[in-house]
Structures are given as C-alpha cells and as structure tokens.
Amino acid sequence: MKIAHNFNAGPCVLPKAALEAAIEALKDFKGTGMSVIEMSHRSKEWEAVMAECRSLWKEILNIPEGYQVLFLGGGASMQFLYVAMNLLEKKAGYLETGVWAKKALKEAKGFGDAISVASSADKNFSYIPKGYEIPADLDYFHITTNNTIYGTEIHTDMDCPVNLIADMSSDIMSRPVDVSKYALIYGGAQKNVGPAGVTFVIVKEDILGKVSRYLPTMLDYRTHINEESMFNTPPVFSIFVMNETLKWVKAKGGLDAVYKMNLDKAGLLYNEIDRNKMFMGTAAKEDRSLMNICFVMTEEYKDKEDAFMSFAKERGMVGIKGHRSVGGFRASCYNACPVESIQALVSCMQEFEKLNG
C-alpha cells in the first residue's frame, strides 16, 4: 500500500479509527442491515448518534450551561452570513487577519455597519494585530483564530468587552478553549473534527433574538436549536465521522494531551525551518500557527523551489504546496497528522539540503 504523508489543508488527514468505523457503518450500521447513509435520520439509532456527538462536544470542550451545539450545512462561509444576520443590529467589528476574515467582514457589511478594528494586511497577513482597542458600542467582535493560508494563529482566549465571535474552522479541538469567553464559535469540520459537509456552531443562547430584522426560518439559529439540528435532513455521514473523530480525541486524553502533541509536532518542523539554511518561515514567530506551517525557500535558493517540491513528492509528501497567494510551502499538521509524517518531512528537508546546499 502506498504511503502518503498527508499535509493537505482541508479536507485533510483523519484518524484511522474514525475512517475504519465509517467503513463499517457504510456497510452495516449497528446491525440494522442498512448503511448509515441509507437509514432515516428520525430513527432511534441515528438520534443516538446525534445525541452522543453533541455530548462529546460539550464534554471535551467543557462547554458551560446556556450554550447550544448545532450541526449545520453550508460550511463556515455560510456562517459569515448567519452571524451578521442573527447578531448585527447596529455595528460590528472584525479583526482582519486574512482571506476568510475579509470574506466574513464583506458579508457583514450587507447587514449594517461593519468595520475592520485592526488589520495585518500591510504585511500580507503575516502577523496577528496587537495593541488595538475594541469599541464598546459593538454588537459583537469577530475573530478568525487560525489563518490557514498565512500560517498565523491566535493562541489565547482574549477578554472582550462585547460578544466575541470566533471562526475556529482550522484550530478547534487542537487546544483547550475557554468557551465562556465566546458568545459564538463556528467552523467547517474538514480540519480537526471530521470530513467536509457539516458545520459546527457553539452559541450562547441568550444572545439570540435581539435583532429587529426578519430572519428567514432556515437562517435563524433558534430554528436549529429548537429542532436539535434536524429541522431538515442533516449531513448524516459527516456527523457520523465527526462523532468517531471526537471519540478518538477523547481516547487520546482530551485536549490537554492533544495540545501537547500539537506543540511537539509543530516544534519539530519549525526547528528545522529555522535551522535549515534553505528555508525560512513566513509568519511572525510569536504568531506561528500550530496547524498550518508556512515556509518558503530563502532568497539564495529561490530557484530550487520546484526541485524541492518534486523531491518531496517523490518521498510521499502530499499537499505541501503553499496557497497561490503566498507561494512556497504549507504543511498542515492537524490533530490526526502523525508525528511520523512530520519526521519524514524534516528528513526530506535535511536530505535536500545535503544534496543542494
């Protein structure tokens, strides 16, 4: 069997245990004689999966009372609209740290006064803005905690004078999070918590119902709270794999253990990037992402970029080409990416240096 070291940014590597459970469930779900994608979402077997998945979110993240966990369609991009439609009455602020933050801000402007409170666009989003003041008159302040394209990450849960909204698509479940500091957290599942096709939302229920505009039934968070994420047919297969992925996180020892694992993996690769004369990181060191490690060839070796890409591919590295807007390389080291893959990439970089440096 071909060995692939999967560094894709999303969809991406998933835990082997979750994949194996999914294969079995596709053939026969819990002895029903039906595939998990054939049976009714109103069956007691499926309702048990939904309840277990919701319970695992609450347990692993230690979600306080008063919050609801939703499983929706449309991806994080649909949440750009959902958030503004449900929460923006007068004014909202956004921290502009990359492409996805800019897209979220664009959607909000269609519903009211939405402003960029701070931006790192001046240096191609290579750092997280600091020292800015969050206006007290905002309905909410929106952040994108991890920036997959630029390799930056907000590593702590900030204190915020207004409702704090976070797109955590690419770093949810990678570290412990103080959910009580957020009014709403959302993201696409296709990084750390499952395959593409389902979106998670963690929302503090008492922030809802405050806007004066009409909310279409399907775009009102309260609809999905009342119907336990089954107002319409949910993306059952994606939720099933999410549930199995969360079981894997729990079995690993929860988020404290997973966070240590991620620190160790990222440290291995960043240490090599900083040591190797042929490569350099693109993000400010204090803001480097644990999930998406971005780097380029140093000026002296720029002409070797294509050669290294081919060299790495020959050795089983998959998905390390950087986003077209920044170039270079990107190794996405999500929870399920094994340390052996990181070690293989480091060895590949060291071997290339010996041959070409």
Report Rg: 21 Å
Shape: globular
Summed up, the domain count is: 2
If you average the pLDDT, what whole number results? 97
Biggest sheet features:
7 strands, mixed
The percentage helix is: 25-40%
Physical arrangement of strands within the biggest beta sheet: 2-10-9-8-5-3-4
Span between termini: 33 Å
Strand tally:
14
Unreliable residue runs: none
From N to C, what is the helix and strand string?
A: EHHEHEHEEEEEEEHHHEEHEEH
Q: Percent of residues in beta strands?
A: 15-25%
CATH architecture label name of the largest domain: 3-Layer(aba) Sandwich
**CATH secondary-structure class of the largest domain:** Alpha Beta
CATH topology (level 3) name of the largest domain? Aspartate Aminotransferase, domain 2
Structural class: alpha/beta
Count of separate DSSP helical elements: 9
Written overview of the protein:
This protein is α/β, with parallel strands linked by helices and 357 residues long. It has two domains: 16-251, 3-Layer(aba) Sandwich (Aspartate Aminotransferase, domain 2), CATH 3.40.640; 253-356, Alpha-Beta Complex (Aspartate Aminotransferase, domain 1), CATH 3.90.1150.10. Helices cover 35% and strands 17% of the residues. The protein contains nine helices and 14 strands. The chain has helices at residues 16-27, 44-61, 75-87, 99-108, 221-226, 236-251, 254-275, 305-314, 339-356, and strands at residues 5-6, 67-72, 91-96, 113-119, 140-144, 146-147, 152-153, 163-167, 184-188, 199-204, 279-281, 292-297, 317-318, 329-332. The strands form four sheets. It has a seven-stranded mixed β-sheet, with helices on both faces. A hairpin with a 4-residue loop joins strand 6 (146-147) and strand 7 (152-153). Helix 7 packs parallel to helix 9. The longest helix is centred in the last third of the chain and has 22 residues, at 254-275. The protein is globular, with a radius of gyration of 21 Å. The two termini are 33 Å apart. The mean pLDDT is 97.
